[in-house]
Amino acid sequence: MRYWDEHIECMERSTLQEIQFKRLVETVKRVYTSVPYYRKKMQERGIIPEDIKSLDDLKKLPFTTKQDLRDNYPYGLFAVPLSEIVRIHASSGTTGKPTVVGYTKHDIGIWSEVMARTLVAAGADKHSFVQIAYGYGLFTGGLGVHYGAERIGASVIPISSGNTRRQIQLMVDFGTTVLACTPSYALYLAETMEEMEIDKSQLKLKSGVFGAEPWSENMRKEIESKLNIKAYDIYGLSEIIGPGVSFECEYQCGMHINEDHFLPEIINPETGEVLGEGEYGELVFTTITKEGLPLIRYRTRDITALHYDRCKCGRTLVRMEKVIGRTDDMIIIRGVNVFPSQIESVLLEMGEVEPHYQLIVDRINNLDVLEVLVEVSERMFSDEVKKLEQLEKKITKAIEETLGISVKVRLVEPKTIERSEGKAKRVIDKRKI
Amino acid sequence: MFVKQISVFLENKSGRLAEVTGILGRHDIDISALSIADTTDFGILRLIVNKPDLALQVLKENGFTVSATDVIAIAVEDKPGGLAKVLEILYKKDIGIEYMYAFVGKLSDQALVILKVEKADEAIEVLKENNVKILPAEEVYAL
């Protein structure tokens, strides 16, 4: 089985666009009528729902940001009476108030459906044993994958995150075939397996769906070889629905967006202008089927590009590239944009370095300084100082060539960089600006 | 003829050396020689111990990055020029020294030195030819 819903996933674009347009119009009408915040914003722009005459008119609508969700905390942007809301999640939230999202029964159905497509594309079916090592609770990861796995009739192992050694033991004992967690946690699992002297041949794992944080192509290779699986990237954010907004197919050439539910755009983050196919910019979504919390032109802050050419898998759903960074966690060092994923790629390409690293940004004498901490593994260790110093220089040079700025590389002892069971903390910014 | 040296990667922060020696002590491992090579950020601790295999194992178990290296232990006359004589022998044969350090002296008339050289086998030949006393591993571990 290659598709969950072949009819939608492989639909002619013209037919898809008709569906999208119809749903967009309904959504705009609904928010205009039931969400005072949107009505006010549209009135300020002099727009009424009838102005949406084609998909192209989407760009007339105002953007929504995380700040708008915070300003309307907790339920201000909900479009249905609270009695219709059957589930509430909240995003992991970094600073300030969390962003609260609500689902109707119908919304949960959509979520299950898009996650079912995601899991099937990653090779899962009703015979699969899906171990869900994303956190359950207010975070959307765990329950999102859970509902999708149930929808396809797989056997779900809802272990949630943490308890790493037990996770591995159950993986062996229960014959887990599909693993769902963050990519950094997948590597941590592989590392712990080595410590427990459990070989990948003892596992029945076939594939994994990994998301919730950016990861590089090299990290994929690392996970695939250490766990002997095919590793699929998945994407989602709680504001739009949770995991399942987009997913990779077996060709791993970008993530197919479930565009019959979430309408994507790429914009210039500075000007808000809509960009064309293949251009990098900020990803923006309009939900076109959600009832509880419909969002108009929600700015994800994720930077990527869209590709509309037909995929080898037969799906016509647009593909988004791996997110190359965020407009907000991007570090600007001496005027240069730096994404942690760039440094990760460099380290993994060196071959002899473990992908455990941390970036420390500081400002010394009004000059930004980037320090890269890299854990020393047994493979790269030498009893001679000069060899370690050569390695430090080699890493420094490779990073400097990629970023175009000078960095200070510091080798540190193994296991000293904090392992995370959720999102890895890659950047510590000590600058006081 | 080689002696197994244990090398440990250490970040330059207080307490790390105490931790290593503490672990060795708890496992009843005796240190007969040690040296630290350091840079601004990190150091390499080199140790000669009575039970190198056990030392390697327990340090690894405690999360240190450790390796074992073959080095040469020699005894030189404990008087002015004693070491110079040996170094000259190696120099004449163009054998470079990676690093060296001295033993905690236990023999009254001889100084014990650990050598890590580029061409280890050749170095042993030359030293033997010139009657330099090379200490066997068993003897070194027992010191």
* Terminal-residue CA separation of chain A: 54 Å
Helix content of chain A: 25-40%
Report Rg of chain A.
Answer: 22 Å
The radius of gyration of chain B is 16 Å
**If helices are DSSP runs of H or I spanning 4 or more residues, what is the number of helices of chain A?**
11
Report the portion of residues of chain A in β strands. 15-25%
What about the largest sheet of chain B? 7 strands, antiparallel
Largest interface: A-B, 17 and 22 residues
Total number of β-strand segments of chain A? 21
Low-confidence stretches of chain A: none
Enzyme class (chain A): ligase
EC number (chain A): 6.2.1.30
Domain AMP-dependent synthetase/ligase (chain A): 82-285
Keywords (chain A): Coiled coil, Ligase, Nucleotide-binding
Q: Overview of this structure, please?
A:
Chain B: InterPro entries: ACT-like_dom_sf, ACT_dom, ACT_dom_pair. Chain B: Residues 5-92 form the ACT domain. Chain B: This is Amino acid-binding protein. Chain A: Belongs to the phenylacetyl-CoA ligase family. Chain A: Catalyzes the activation of phenylacetic acid (PA) to phenylacetyl-CoA (PA-CoA). The complex is a heterodimer of chains A (433) and B (143). By secondary structure, chain A is of the alpha/beta class. Chain A has 2 domains: 1-328, Rossmann fold, CATH 3.40.50; 331-429, ANL, C-terminal domain (GMP Synthetase, Chain A, domain 3). Chain A has 11 helices and 21 strands. Chain A has helices spanning 6-9, 13-34, 36-44, 66-71, 105-121, 140-151, 164-174, 183-195, 217-227, 340-350, 385-403, and strands spanning 85-90, 100-104, 129-132, 155-157, 178-181, 207-210, 230-237, 242-248, 255-257, 262-267, 281-287, 298-304, 306-307, 319-320, 325-326, 331-333, 336-338, 357-364, 367-375, 408-412, 427-429. Chain A has a 9-stranded mixed β-sheet with strand order 4-3-5-6-7-8-9-14-13. In chain A, helix 5 (105-121) packs across helix 6. Chain A is globular. The mean pLDDT of chain A is 91. Chain B is of the alpha+beta class and 143 residues long. In chain B, strands 1, 2, 3, 4, 5, 6 and 7 form a 7-stranded antiparallel β-sheet that branches. In chain B, strand 2 and strand 3 (42-49) form a beta hairpin. Chain B is globular and about 45 Å long. The A-B interface holds A 376-378, 381-385, 388-389, 410-416 and B 5, 7, 9-11, 16, 37-39, 41-42, 44, 46, 63-67, 69, 98-99, 116.
